Amino acid sequence: MTDFSVAALRPCFPSLSLRQNGVPVVYLDGPGGTQVPQRVIDAVAGYYREMNANDSGAFVTSRRSDAMLAEAHCAAADFINAASPEEVKFGLNMTTQTFSISRSIGATLEPGDEIVVTVLDHEANVSPWQALRERGVVIRTVDIREEGCTLDLDDLDRKLNSRTRLVAIGYASNAVGTVNPVKEIVRRAHAVGALAYVDAVHYAPHGPIDVAALDADFLVMSAYKFFGPHVGILYGKAEVLDRLPAYKVRPAHDRFELGTQNHEGIAGTLAAIEYLSEVGSRFGGAPAGATRRERLAAGMTAIKAYERTLSERLMVGLRRIPGVRVWGIADPARFGERTPTFAIRVGEMSPLETAERLGERGIFVWDGDFYAQALIERLGLFDTGGVVRIGMAHYNTPEEIDRLLEEIDLLAA
């Protein structure tokens, strides 16, 4: 693997040059939406200049648009190692797509059938399934192990039974960074005859995804979390999608892509995936002639390794600051089980005040519950403002982490 060079990649992101009060800003807000490379901006603008048309027209701009859409489906399939681009469905966002597919799945269920969700998940992978209670579906919730904020797999086993029809899990927690053992959870779901629905929104910018290896029935992502525009992506196994009822207008050519798509956003999503493919060629050790899938896997593996060094640097620094508390996996030896997303509090300061104070200094972090409401409630933090979320991406530098730690140290003092 070629040495990862964040200095070589940062110029690809024009927003990283933003300054506040004459000082460069630090983007540690990635879990809420990452910055985008110039090629994504160019792709969106280029769509409007060169191919702005609805699909299936008998003229050049429509045909260009159709070709781009076909290539974007292929690229997204490569990103997650889907068997076919037809298993990829673009949509408004992950939440909308999950509500939509939950309606299709719900139509196949009977009163007394069960769905398993978890305390660790974003509400977008909980509320759509809870809404099926109106059909008499039973919702069971898997708890966490509070130390480390990891999923309680023993509790999962207690919740699974012959009536379980679907297990909805997150690939990684958008609040505390925990990466779930998704392949094992999918195996346990399948062992009782249930489908597995995986929310990979938070994990997608941080490591390689292989739906074939996971054997997931569904996996959802949002492109704006992995350096692209606001576009949702749903993967579904062909044989599973084919047997579901679809709620669509009669002439629609695709059963699960509803209405006219966000073509310009999909063009930007294609560009984001191509950027990550280039990372694999430059810094992931992908050989000349490697397939796009191979380049993507190499690039995401390189990103994961680099981000781990940032996590370790941050954790060492946080431990040295009196009054700072961290939720989630804190042992660097286990950082393969987390993303570079950290939930903290600084002394008695509210999360909002901490975020505001850091924001005044040009360091952007989030505060609150981040729609992981059940988790923040479970931790007893909801009524007092949740946590401060520090979310690193591969464009962040060690120097930015040091600057953050200096400011937290001042706040703690």
Write structural notes for this entry.
This protein is an alpha/beta fold and 413 residues long. It folds into 2 domains: 6-36 and 302-412, Aspartate Aminotransferase, domain 1; 42-273, Type I PLP-dependent aspartate aminotransferase-like (Major domain) (Aspartate Aminotransferase, domain 2, 3-Layer(aba) Sandwich). 39% of the residues lie in helices and 16% in strands. It is built from 14 helices and 17 strands. The chain has helices spanning 6-9, 38-50, 60-80, 94-106, 127-130, 153-159, 182-191, 211-214, 238-242, 263-283, 292-319, 351-360, 373-378, 398-412; strands at residues 19-20, 23-24, 26-27, 88-91, 114-118, 138-142, 144-145, 150-151, 164-170, 195-199, 218-222, 232-236, 324-327, 341-346, 363-364, 366-368, 387-391. It has a 7-stranded mixed beta sheet, sandwiched between helices. Strands 13-14-17-16 form a 4-stranded antiparallel beta sheet, covered by helices on one side. α8 (211-214) links the parallel β10 (195-199) and β11. α2 (38-50) packs antiparallel against α10 and α3 (60-80) packs across α11 (292-319). The longest helix is centred in the last third of the chain and has 28 residues, at 292-319. It is globular. The two termini are 42 Å apart. The model has no long low-confidence stretch (mean pLDDT 97).
Reported by name, the CATH topology of the largest domain is Aspartate Aminotransferase, domain 2
From the N-terminal CA to the C-terminal CA, the straight-line distance is 42 Å
Categorize the overall geometry.
Answer: globular
Radius of gyration equals 21 Å
Largest sheet, order of strands side by side?
4-12-11-10-9-5-6
Going by CATH, the architecture of the largest domain would be 3-Layer(aba) Sandwich
CATH superfamily of the largest domain: Type I PLP-dependent aspartate aminotransferase-like (Major domain)
Q: Counting H and I runs of at least 4 residues, what is the number of helices?
A: 14
What percent of the residues sit in helical stretches (DSSP H or I)?
A: 25-40%
* Sheet with the most strands, sense and barrel status: 7 strands, mixed
Indicate the structural class: alpha/beta
Strand content: 15-25%
Number of strands: 17
**How many structural domains?**
2
Detail the poorly predicted runs.
Answer: none
Mean pLDDT: 97
CATH class of the largest domain: Alpha Beta
